[in-house]
Design a protein that fits this description.
CATH topology: Beta-galactosidase, Chain A, domain 5
Shape: globular
Distance between the termini: 48 Å
CATH architecture: Distorted Sandwich
Structural class: mainly beta
Number of domains: 1
Number of helices: 3
Largest sheet: 10 strands, antiparallel
Radius of gyration: 18 Å
Strand content: 35-45%
Length: about 300
Amino acid sequence: MSDPWNIHSLSSGTLELHCLPGIGGRLWDVQFDGQSLFFQNTDLIDSAVDLDALSDLPTRSPQFGFPLWGGEKTWIAPDSDWPNGAPYPVLDSGPYETSDPGPDRLRMTSSVCPSSNLQIEREIFLTSETSFSIHHRVTNLGASDRYTGNWSVLMLNRPTTIGLESNPGGDIIPVFGDASGMTRQTGAFHLFDCKKPQEFKSGTHNTTGRVFIRLETPSGSVTLICTTPRPADKDSFAHGHEFEVFNSVNYDYCEAEWHSPARMLAPKESLTYHQNFDVRREADILSDPKTTLIDLELLSCMS
């Protein structure tokens, strides 16, 4: 059996994407100018992966009954359908088959989950020296209809600030934990200050389809901008909103979580979701003539 910890890397020079097909088809890390942006759980690196004994792995977060590997992955929404409150092991921790490998792209496909009868396909590719995309596809290979949505969960190093423009007058929606002092609203901007270990999860409506993530690295701040399809009036979401933020009390990370519209999938039907990411120094954003006044105002609020 091949080593599940083998890394497949894509590089443009300035930007490096490190993929981990052997454990949930993850985007394991994004490095920009040599700085790591994603969280990896060092307590689990090089651990043996037994899908029938995942709860035996060491954890500092016993409130969650599944391994917190790190990186970015596709989960299946809603989480209320998860068996025993944990993501489907085959999809989250199992090996993905790789295809179309190249210097700038990789496709990773899971086995069919025996519990949900779903299969996930993830395609990750560089689109420029400072940008990349992730395409998520979930397919129902069961014999009956199934309600589902793609759910991209990105584990980020702290300290991090996350901001987006939402509906005027819209609320930041508590999910669990204590978000006091960690979230704020400034006009139409919703801001999440993930700088300290205080557990909370909150959701909001990503009405423009753009999220700004400001990460502090040893060589200065880096801004990760994610653009997704703007939601339509007819769209519904498995958790009631398009975007969520989780902040950990036990590990030094936070999560940015995107939801595709959810719907009932007929047998052999698929649901796709696309994310486009730009990785930039804040000085480059501020000096770019294409940067809008709204983006400048949002960055100012996040500083």
